[in-house]
Amino acid sequence: MARTGLHGASPDLVLLVTAGVPAQDVVPLIRGVLGPVGVAGGATSAILTHNGAVTAGALVICLANGEGAVSGVAAAGGNDLTEAGQGAARLILAGWPFRMRYPRGLGLAFVKPGFGAPAEAFLQPWRVLMGPKMRTVCSVLSAPRVYGASTGEPLASAACLEAAYSTGLGYAEGFDGRSAPASDTLIQGSVDATLTALKRLEGDGARLLLVIESTARHRALGAAAADEWAAIKGTIDSRTPCVGWLCDHVAAYGRGVRPVDAHGSLVVVALGDTPRR
């Protein structure tokens, strides 16, 4: 099903996020269908689908490189997220056939819980190697499983697309864990983040919208979480895939978004159709 949107092209990269830890290794199953494709992702508490948050199942996103683009995946271990993040960055950079001084594109990182905060422990040292033009989102997952090949037990799994892709990031600020804002305020913040991400496409149509939401925000919304999801989807064409996942913490950097560790935040990623010429 995930491959049908590529219109016959072969996927170069697969993002895999499962709701819970599956009983068997699903990466070989994916490669059995799609071939020797790079896989990055992990297990978390819930995935966001057309119907909202679900706590069982798998989200599979297939991406194909556009003309002049290159992608890479890596999984790395270490004593903490700093070591794992820099290890993954070095592996990705070493595997690319060409590299600008500062590669430009989109990065998505998935890390195990309990090893540090996403902005301070992962994104800051990652940015030292990848540079400021690789817009990156880091999700601290809710389950201790990340997907990808590694010589040891991986702490982080990362995927990058390098090219002048039309991409946009939007960020909804977190809140004090002792006193959550009203649901209407949270929903408006999520919608504003979505509109900001779409605005960054500068007129290009979105082909994919990813929503990465902290479990604290989703929990604070309660029954209004369905209203939030409907409001986010209402900002885009009904034919545009809109999916995502919940995680313990999320942070990002790139064009208007600063890496901040905050309780209850949300990040939206808008990806355009093709690299700009």
Question: Can you describe what's shown?
Answer:
This protein is of the alpha+beta class. The chain folds into 2 domains: 2-164, no CATH class; 166-275, 60s Ribosomal Protein L30, Chain: A (2-Layer Sandwich). The chain is built from 6 helices and 15 strands. The chain has a 6-stranded mixed β-sheet. Helix 3 links the parallel strand 7 and strand 8. The longest helix is centred in the C-terminal third of the chain and has 17 residues, at 183-199. The radius of gyration is 17 Å and the shape is globular. The model has no long low-confidence stretch (mean pLDDT 90).
A few lines on this structure:
The chain is an alpha+beta fold and 277 residues long.
Give the overall average pLDDT. Answer: 90
* Largest sheet descriptor: 6 strands, mixed
Strand order, largest beta sheet: 4-3-13-12-15-11
Secondary-structure class: alpha+beta
Morphology = globular
Q: What is the overall number of helices?
A: 6
Report helical residue fraction: 10-25%
Order of helices and strands: EHEEEEEHEHEEEEHEHHEEE
